[in-house]
Write a structure and sequence with these properties.
Strand content: 35-45%
Structural class: mainly beta
Mean pLDDT: 87
Largest sheet: 8 strands, mixed
Strand order of the largest sheet: 7-8-9-11-15-14-13-12
Shape: globular
Number of helices: 3
CATH architecture: 6 Propeller
CATH class: Mainly Beta
Number of strands: 22
Helix content: under 10%
Radius of gyration: 18 Å
Order of helices and strands: HEEEEEEEEEEEEEEEEEEHEEEEH
Number of domains: 1
Low-confidence stretches: 1-19
Amino acid sequence: MIKKFDLLINIIIFSSLITTPSYSYANDPELNPGTVSNIEINEASGIAISRINEDVLWVINDSGNSSIFAMNSNGNHLATFNIQDVMNNDWEDLTSFTYKGKPYILIADVGDNKAKREKCYLHFIQEPDLIKTSNSSPVSIKPSWSIAFTYEDGPRDCESVAVDIVNEKILLLSKRDQPPVLYEIPLNKQKNIVAKKLGKIKPLPQPTQNDIRLIKYLNQITHQPTAMDISSDGLSAVILTYVNAYYFTSEEPTDWLTVFLSTPNKITLPPLQQAESVCFDKDGKSIYVTSEKIPAPLLKIDLTELLNM
């Protein structure tokens, strides 16, 4: 109990020293969240927008099966695809992108709570066209390619992965380092790669007293990054934590370490059990957020207010 009290006091003191532009969605009546309806998605650890299917989102679990699930923006289940010859060691993020004219989904098998994994993996799936797929039973598909990689400075726990399609890079943001460390990998078909360390980003703000809306979060480091995405135009990024999201933007494509050293706009979210999934929509003007555990709300958050700030 003493440790919990000390943590709360430190959070309150530290947060009082930080000024972060923010917009609150915690009580926004226009959120109209859906609910993830598929009971198989009980640990949603990554979400991605479809590049070719209208009103479709892709979701993964962080363990238990090697499948990706399609649902609509209300959370209704559409289809299941089993990924052949791929293990789910600890799938922690999901992103979609268009590369050389083809749509892909990237599954990031990068979780490493104890920082002991010899290798982590990225699996690239050419996105299925649901119009050509029967939704009645799971469909088996194979990755177009996979990458095995290590970090240049030793194993890292990571839950935040995004594709910078403008520079053809994959970005990885460590979870347990303080502040988080940004790494990059080239977007190609090499099999064994070393993730290059770009540097430490600006510390994500500690939650304020009002942010700590669920007492169980006192047992967690609530400012750790749990997911990340980059908009398709390469000008915006969002980083999710257990409590809030942080929106970064640039007027022109640049290196992301510089962007992540700037002060983000804070997006105050409604209470979520364990927020670990975020993605932009196709035009980058909204984000989708969902969480682990069942039932999991599916939020669509309009960024218009932030875009106009």
